[in-house]
Amino acid sequence: MPGAAIARPSKLEYAVLLALAARTRADCLGRRVGAVVIREDRVLSTGYNGTPIGMPNCSEGGCHRCASRDTGPYPVGGAYDLCVCVHAEQNAILAAARFGQSTLGGTLTTTLRPCFGCCKEALQAGIVAVRYLDEWEPAAGEQDPGLAVQYASLRARFAVFEAVTVDRTRLLAFLAAGAAPAAAG
Fold first, then answer.
1. Residue 140's closest CA among 50, 79, 63, 53?
2. pTM for the complete prediction?
3. Of residues 89, 121, 137, 142, which has the active-site annotation?
4. Over the stretch 124-142, which tens digit does the pLDDT of each residue have?
5. Please, what is the angle between helix 116-124 and helix 145-156, to 10°?
């Protein structure tokens, strides 16, 4: 028996690994995010944040908000209505729709807790569970008590809405094992 068998990742670890892989394609100058939609243990789609198809990427000046993030008038975490970028969660849901995959009853796994808008869209797309790797701090406007109540109400509509805890060293080991050359035998 050549070499010791490496345990497979759990289904949750696999989803997180896919979301992390999708994140590597993000071109946002602020925060890079990746997402995956899974239904009935099958991957439907992945997404990452960036400009719409056919537009220059953020790093190429495609998004005025991103290009002006250090010098412009836009507050950190705000002015998203002026941002042309599509969020990773939106891209994953839209990619499923584009290729005729129903997201009804699906799970959205993302590298960052979904924003208010992405939660609305996930609910509308029939997503029943949301799992995310990292938290984010709400911007000043998102700390409004009324908005906080609405956001909590949205989150409560999902059967599952939770931060996931995964061993990041273990995730790296899966990636390293997958990159190793096949054993001779």
1. 79
2. 0.86
3. 89
4. 999 999 999 999 876 655 6
5. 30
